[in-house]
Write a structure and sequence with these properties.
nine-stranded mixed sheet; 8 helices; 30% strand; 15 strands; six-stranded mixed sheet
């Protein structure tokens, strides 16, 4: 049985305290390193126009590409190296939707679950989410991308603002677990038909809300280096444990530990260290 992880791979321009670098990014990219170690039976499906980005994945043969006419581009600016929880972000807001017709011929025969990683509201139209629900397997969904809309144009990119929208309730209905942070939770409020919410809050830890609420402490870092992709790493680590039928508390504590290990190094989670 295979876990299918779907979402854009990105070209990221990262500025930390004035020091610039170009990196591969996107939630599916960061998560693939975690699944490579803790749930090796996975397939990553990405939408982009630049095949070179795929070369950076831990296992190229596990990546399937939906070729589009654009690639997501993000600028992640951390003004202070001493405060990596504060980020200024811009995006080109690529309109390269993943459609059911894109997926029909490339999905594996047996599927353990879906992990959906939209980076903006265009990525997963409601019809695509409904198509994936029809498989009757668990769906784990990162909420942030659905809330992202362009705000102020800066050259060819846009600053990002977050907002709720009318279709969100039907998109989330029937999803097993959604992942979001505290600011996103404040935007969507309550009343959504979701079995479980995993709500992160950076160095303040996380909480898991289902029939009850479980608080998870953040694991302190010895040397905070790079927080880009930390939430994606947490999400993948959590899912890897849920698929082993671990309790939410056990999965949350494990995810907190793996996320802490990730931010002590540049780039994605380093399972070879």
């Amino acid at each position: 049985m295979t876990l299918v992880v779907i979402g854009p791979v990105t070209h990221d321009f990262v500025v930390i305290g004035g020091e610039e670098s170009h990196k591969v990014g996107g939630a599916t990219y960061f998560q693939s390193f975690v699944f490579e170690e803790f749930h090796n039976d996975y397939v990553a499906i990405v939408n982009c126009s630049d095949d070179k980005l795929i070369e950076e994945f831990p296992s190229r043969d596990k990546v399937k590409v939906i070729r589009k006419d654009d690639t997501h581009f993000f600028i992640n600016n951390y003004p202070s190296r001493d405060d990596l929880n504060t980020r200024e972000q811009l995006s080109n807001f690529a309109d390269i939707a993943i459609l059911p017709s894109d997926l029909e011929e490339i999905l594996p025969c047996e599927i353990d679950g879906f992990v959906l990683n939209p980076l903006n509201r265009f990525d997963f139209p409601a019809e695509t989410v409904e198509y994936l629900k029809s498989f009757g397997v668990p769906i784990f969904l990162s909420l942030q991308g659905f809330l992202r809309v362009p705000d102020v144009q800066v050259n060819d990119n846009y600053t990002i603002k977050l907002s709720d929208f009318d279709e969100l309730a039907s998109i989330l209905s029937g999803v097993d677990v959604i992942f979001l942070d505290e600011s996103e939770k404040n935007i969507i409020g309550t009343g959504y038909d979701v079995d479980e919410m995993v709500i992160t809050n950076g160095s303040h830890g996380s909480r898991i809300v289902s029939d009850s609420e479980i608080r998870i402490d953040a694991v302190p870092c010895v040397n905070l280096v790079d927080t880009t992709g930390c939430g994606d790493t947490y999400m993948a680590a959590y899912i890897s444990q849920k698929l082993l039928l671990k309790s939410p508390e056990t999965a949350g504590n494990f995810a907190s530990m793996i996320a802490s290990e990730k931010i002590e190094n540049f780039g994605p989670y380093n399972f070879n260290k």
